[in-house]
Amino acid sequence: MKKLICLLLFLCGVFQPLLSWAKKYPGDRVFVALEQFQWREFVSSDQRVVLESGPRLRMGVTENNLSLRWPGIVYDLTASLQLGRVDYLGDTQFTQSDTAVSFKTSTDYLGFAMSALIGQRYGYVNRTHLFDVMGGVSLEGWLKTINASIDEQAQPVNALGKSYRVVSGLVAMGFSQREQRRNAYFRVGIKYPLVIQEWVTEDEIKFHPGKNFSGFASIKLIDFFQVFNRYITITVFFDSYRFGQSNGKMISVEGDDGENVPIVMRQFKSEMDVFGVSIAF
Prior knowledge:
Layout: H1 2-24, E1 29-42, E2 48-64, E3 72-91, E4 102-124, E5 129-146, E6 149-150, E7 156-157, E8 160-179, E9 182-200, E10 205-207, E11 210-211, E12 214-227, E13 230-244, E14 249-254, E15 260-265, E16 269-280
Antiparallel strand pairs: 1-2, 1-16, 2-3, 3-4, 4-5, 5-8, 6-7, 8-9, 9-10, 9-12, 11-13, 12-13, 13-16, 14-15
């Protein structure tokens, strides 16, 4: 209950400045999104050892000129916060034996994302259909806390905190079809992480997961509805990351006999997929 109250207070504290921003800068848009999140980790190409899944909330501001009616320079700027609690099903990474032990718990997420895309718009078919080529960069970071639990052998599993920071290069293509003020806009793109940093917060261990290409896509219905004298944009979106296994780090843990035991810790191959719907006003 305390965590729920804190979450509600946090949302109220964040959302009010966003509303004030929207009133002060009517060309900008405030958006709220509900997304289905999934994170998977693998020790090999077909052996999954971690699955996190569940809903998360995202809110932020965006500024763009995607409603441009003629060829020219187009841009799209976005900044957002994301948070939520998802289900966790995984194996303990290290045990005294060679056999991992499964356990269930939850993972709390709190993060931010910023992206900037800019490019050229081209027109065809009397300029009612438009085509964009865009490039840019994104910065995303998040803190995840895997909450304490009990494994399937009735042994306690301590909470574990991890934080990530990812800088990616973006390339995207956009397609726009206009009908008076309304604009249907489809975008598809790929991104490549230029910098990936991960920290295990309790032990201050730093990893550098492997870099792989991943994709993103969205469909925007721009200004399709009007509510309280403000036009509404609805977006259905997909985002993803693909990280390779990180380098190993030697650490010491306390064994059953009280002696320190050296082990190698690493971040496994990871995949993240996010599907969501947002409303901007």
